Amino acid sequence: xxxxxxxxLPYGLFMIxxxxxxFLMIIWFSFTNESCGLTFENxxxxxxxxxxxxxxxxxxxxxxxxxxxxxxxxACFITKFSKLTQKLLIILIMLPMWTNLLLRxxxxxxxxxxxxxxxxxxxxxxLPQLRMINTPGAVILGMVYDFLPFMIIPIYTTISKIDxxxxxxxxxxxxxxxxTFRRIILPLSVPGIVSGVSMVFVPATSTFxxxxxxxxxxxxxxxxxxxxxxxxSTYNPWLGSALSFVLMIIIALIMxxxxxxxxxxxxxxxx
Amino acid sequence: xxxxxxxxxISFILFICLIQPxxxxxxxxxxxxxxxxxxxxxxxGTANSLNVIEAxxxxxxxxxxxxxxxxxxxxxxxxxxxxxVEYDLIFPSEYMISRLIxxxxxxxxxxxxxxxxxxxxxxxxxxxxxxxxTDEYSVPYTWGTVGLVYNVPLVEELTGQKASExxxxxxALWDKRLEKEIFMFINSRxxxxxxxxxxxxxxxxxxxxxxxxxxxxxxAQKPLVQAYIMDQIFDKMANNEGAITPAYAGDILTMMRxxxxxxxxxxxxxxxxxxxxxxxxxxxxxxxxxxKFIDFLCREDIATENANFISYSTAISGAWENLCxxxxxxxxxYPPENIKQKCEIHKYLPKQINTHIExxxxxxKN
Lengths: 271, 366
Prior knowledge:
The complex is a heterodimer. Chain A is built from 12 helices and no strands. Chain A is mainly alpha-helical. Chain A has a single domain, classed as MetI-like (MetI-like fold), CATH 1.10.3720.10. In chain A, helix 8 packs antiparallel against helix 9. Chain B has 2 domains: 176 residues, Periplasmic binding protein-like II (D-Maltodextrin-Binding Protein, domain 2, 3-Layer(aba) Sandwich), CATH 3.40.190.10; 150 residues, D-Maltodextrin-Binding Protein, domain 2. Chain B is built from 17 helices and 13 strands.
């Protein structure tokens, strides 16, 4: 026991210092005001910003669904290649993540702009131009692009780890490819889907900058709102903390429901 | 064992060097200076300009050890009040200077020790404009007005009218024909100032009814606005991404240099004039060096370099003489007296009014 706790000490200290204490500080700030008095004012003020929170959740949900729809077939597709090609493809997926997020988003700005890459291309073809920049669609596109690898990789990992014998056994017992997929591959890849969903949905809900750059400042998300409470012209860390706190609770609830739903789903699919 | 002591010795020496500033940097015998400044607000050596910071370091032997930038007065205020770095020199705008004096966050500057102070334009001083009644807390650096910049071919294409007839004042920002081609300031103070001028109110109004009328106007404008932005405006206007935007005079000159389709309009309803000054925070540790830097920026040749580079109007009268022709005779940077008369400066508003404006602005934008 002693040896165990000694080994745990650095991690424990790290977690206390950089996870627990900041978390408690957020809670403390959420329920106090400038003069350190206890108050519910910050939490009540959030009522004015439900629209922004709802928008963030809706955009994140849309981005997550799009990511899932793109990623699942793609992940299956990758597993069909030789080990070496698989590695190469995974590196190619990770490659954009080595570039700064700001830079990637900025690139999308120049692609989507009124006189950007796409519209210039349409122009040369003589087609009508599209209004893409500074719309909700552009923000969701930015999210999908930035978070796609976080969906592909966990799904790919679980699918590639499925025991080939199980599939062969299924085939031996007369299952066609659709049945194999529905009864073996899909249920066994649920853990990958769940972690992919949480790895996309959670950062997408609280993301900022993307909406400022692609949404024109009028499609603000809760992340932008929180940022402006700390860094922007409205300095109000108390409201910022309250927003972060409420957002944390909402995300935790949603994740809990997803996990529960997926557990029963996996069992139902396997039976 | 011998090796180990050697390693220990070397690391000890290195450690001493690290904690003792100056051991490795003999070049700078006169200490350091920490500056907190607007982005792109000093000539920085790009495009054949003078690197003002390097020139200062060479001349005075003072190392500029920290140079951070901010993009709004409020952000600067928050970092100054709650941040961990203690700056020696800051560049707030006039209403923020009043606030910092009021909250006892900046110290008096020893004006007498500044050799070049006599060159500071009278019309920019705090005592004349009222933001620093005794002129003891700030030295003006630059000034300017807020105006409109528009894309002539685009406005004419959208309205079928001569652009200079469409864009006469702030009302052009509410022109339905320019729908989704309008950009607007992202910060509350500048946006409310526009709506208030359009309604013929003072931009320092504390009358809640007037503020709410301005808010209603801004809300009605929202469907017409393509984006609320700040620094991205340069690229957007340069690439013909929108038809019209309000902007600061110095920035308008920069934009017009990059895109010849752009034209300037001073709004007939009147506008805002601003002055950015230099101040020394209360907790500054290198007060003497801050004085040196202020004096350096007031020197005519340095002020000329800066004004040529950033295009903002200089507050040093001697510097104007030597500016490049393009800026020197520009009515955008140096408007005639009758235009200046139509401008009002921002004053520091009471806290509850400020918070109220911020809150409704966040709700309008979203």
